[in-house]
Amino acid sequence: MTPERWRGIKTIFDAALELPSAGRTAFVEASCEGDAAALAEVQSLLAANDEAGDFIEVAPGPPPDKEYSTGFSIGPYRIVQVIGEGGMGMVYQAVRVDDLYRKLVAVKVARRGFNDSAAMRRFETERHILAHLEHPNIARLLDGGTTVAGQPFFVMDFIAGTPIDEYCDAHHLDLASRLRLFLTVCSAVQYAHQNFVVHRDIKPPNILVTEEGAIRLLDFGIAKLLDPEDDSAGATTSIVQMMTPEFASPEQLLNEPVTTASDTYSLGVLLYILLTGHRPFLFKSRMPREIWDTIREAEPRRPSSVVVLSERTATGRDITLPIVADARAIRPGRLARELAGDLDTILLMALRREPHRRYTSVEQLANDIERYLSGQPVLAREDTFSYRAGKFVGRHKGAVAAAGLAVLALAGGVVTTSWEARIATRERERAERRFNDVRRVANSLLFDVHDAIKNLPGATPARQLILTRALEFLDNLSKDAGDDRSLQKELAAAYERVGDVQGQAREAHLGEPEAALVSYKKALAIREGLVAGSPGDRDARRDLVPNYGKLSDLLMAGGDSAGAMEYSRRLLQTAEALAAVPEAGLADQMRLATSYLDFGYKLGMVSGDLPNGVANCRKALRLFDQLVQAQASDKRLLRAQSIAMDRTAELLGKEEAGRAEALGLRQTGLGMKRKLLALEPLNTDYRRLVAWGIFDLAALLEKTGDREQARDGYRSALESFRALAVDDPANAQFRKDVATAEAALRPH
User: Fold this and answer.
1) With 80 as the cut, is the pLDDT of residue 444 above it?
2) CA dihedral in degrees (684, 689, 694, 697; nearest 10)?
3) Which of 262, 417, 437, 531 has the largest count of CB atoms under 10 Å?
């Protein structure tokens, strides 16, 4: 061991000794930053220190917690090995050995001597929280009970996984792949927030990734149930000691009320590390007080600036640009450029010191990342100089006053000559601010506000109003924008969304297909102009894909078969070109799968070419299978896969020989839709998908001669359609759905 490495280990050991034992494990794990050898060395030193302390202790303490050795049974679970130790207890890998099932599990056992303590209450809170969380990316509670010694325990899924940062580096995931993996983490955290749970300890060791790429969020040991009537939601002293300071929000460290914004901050730290390999703050030492003071006072470093630095961790591990870039499968010279701009802004907004100035929710953070991935404008904005300057003045009034006098003295000689120029500059800046403010409002209406209400019951008239206002704003701005490509993209997106509300064939709409056709064509004209002006702009080409698809659907519904097939061909050609290049990502593959499906379905339904139609649909199904294996928790992907099954089944069901396969596809697709609805019971899109899944299955059963089951299905679908129509009476599509189901039930 080199002297430098030993000094780093000793620094961590000395700092850990200053903490209560309950807080040491988290601190040491964070300080060692994934260096397993250093972690083992520090833990060994701490264990030796504890043994020395026990040697001179007069009064005996409680029996040691490590008495549960390999082979010992806790209820029906036999211990295999210790896999973790925290402030509240031990975690063991175990196997169930009775006749119910045999599988590996994780058993968490409360420490002895905590029966009347706050730690025991936290243990019970964790058990209570896990019992109420059912999410594919959160480790499940399986069982619970009390040991023969009277210690509470609970049993969870055993996750054979790797901390998310180590997984990303080991698999050389690029930035886009890391962002998509992070979106899955956001989904789990947002689900917890919707169930009034704040995790409070989000960090890589608590987010494991399996070899299959599945995310699992663990350890709700210091999580908190939100109480709307409780203003004292801050952390107790013992909770603060158990936190990992580098991932804790400033309000957690200041013992101020904790809200979901605290988890947003911790997610920001996590994403910062995933994208840059560095920490947001540079700590002068590993002492807890130093870490706390830095987080509470300093500004996080700009990600695009920090990646070019060479740093050494407390354990002597080097972090250099070539190492970081290699782990992200990107050339060193490109990494800073990729981070500069939107990713810088997203990360720094999530890491703002004041909770109310961060993203308002984890969902909003995730939405901004999705906008970045799809090439849309992000909603995060840079911190203003005036705000930061005001905060600086507040912290350093004396120094600023002295500096101000000196600046005034120096400036006196140039005031007169610069006055007129400053007035002109000020007016120009004011106009630019107004322009950007209106643009931000329009985009907030277009993306945030619209998307927040889109799938709520009765939202169609409000959607129309919101999108119309956004379009008016952008239309006016475009007159002064000249060749501003980003503004043109926003305007095209606005036209497309207005078209969706007016008459999109597959979603809730107002029943105005002619108006929708005009809006879609306006969007297409802008986008084709952008592609012609910059053929290498892949994001502009990507925007063509949904535009072609929606025009094709609208023309098909209106009886224009030739027009529908022409746009479907353009859709497939564009998607194939986007997916054919080496840098194509998951989203490009998903576009390709959707395009195969669209083209195949229309070949069968519009052109009557069933064999080629089914062949293209099967291409789509195979591609969706591969995509779902890579991203099993992506709800948009699962939705698209279920629709692919439906459309393939519709073509297969046209001939008797294909109906058995069609029946299996219909049933599988309906099961997937029901799972999506279970995650969001009020989502009108999922409600309608399930209703149509039931209806289409009934129609296929009727073709096979099972009329009794078919009528039951029609009645169930009609009931769902009527409920949707009552919730949103302005929705022409829902009224049409009701009429379709009523017609199916009439004698014929």
Assistant:
1) no
2) 170
3) 262
Domain count, the chain: 4
Tell me the CATH number at 512: 1.25.40.10
Distance of alpha carbon 505 from alpha carbon 554, whole angstroms: 6
**pLDDT tens for each residue of 686-721:** 999 999 999 999 999 999 999 999 999 999 999 999
Least confident piece of the model among 229-233, 636-640, 648-652, 741-745: 229-233
Q: Mark whether 581 and 498 lie in a shared domain.
A: yes
Tell me the residue type at 185: V
| CB 555 within 8 Å of CB 564 | yes
Helix (H) or strand (E) holding 373: helix 362-373
Q: If 0-12 CB within 10 Å is exposed, 13-18 middle and 19+ buried, where does residue 743 land?
A: exposed
What is the number of other CB atoms lying within 10 angstroms of the CB of residue 157? 16
Which residue's structure tokens are 């300057």?
389
Asked if 374 and 401 sit in the same domain, the reply is no
Of 97, 91, 34, nearest to 66 by C-alpha is: 91
Q: Are 530 and 485 in contact (CB under 8 A)?
A: yes
| Cα distance between residue 3 and residue 98, in whole Å | 52
Q: Which two tokens stand for residue 61?
A: 């303490």
Orientation angle between helical segments 561-579 and 586-605, nearest 10 degrees: 150
CA dist., res. 481 & res. 3, Å (int): 61
pLDDT class of 636 with cuts at 50, 70, 90:
confident
As a whole number of angstroms, the distance between CA 364 and CA 269 comes to 16
pTM of the model: 0.47
- Partners of 312 in beta bridges: 318
The structure tokens 């580098």 sit at 246
Residue keyed to tokens 């030193």: 45
